[in-house]
Write a structure and sequence with these properties.
71 residues; mainly beta; 4-stranded antiparallel sheet; two-stranded antiparallel sheet; 7% helix; globular
């Protein structure tokens, strides 16, 4: 996870609150007009994560990234 986060070291980072912090972590990175959502799934199960009007399926033990710019 740290390797992926380091790519955004020049971005503003917001750690998002969630109802299951031991299962999922989420961070929002912004820089100029770019916004990226990063979601880490710490479980062995597929997790469904809702952010705003969007819903994302995050694979087990994976870090999922989505560019939210323009959405």
């Amino acid at each position: 996870i740290l390797e992926k986060v380091l790519r955004f070291r020049n971005h503003e980072m917001v750690i998002l609150n969630n109802s299951e912090p031991l299962l999922i972590d989420a961070m929002l990175f912004t820089h100029d007009s770019s916004t990226t959502l990063m979601i880490a799934n710490y479980t062995d199960d597929l997790q469904t994560v809702k952010y705003g009007r969007n819903e994302f399926q995050v694979p087990p033990m994976q870090v999922y990234e989505v560019n939210l710019s323009g959405t």
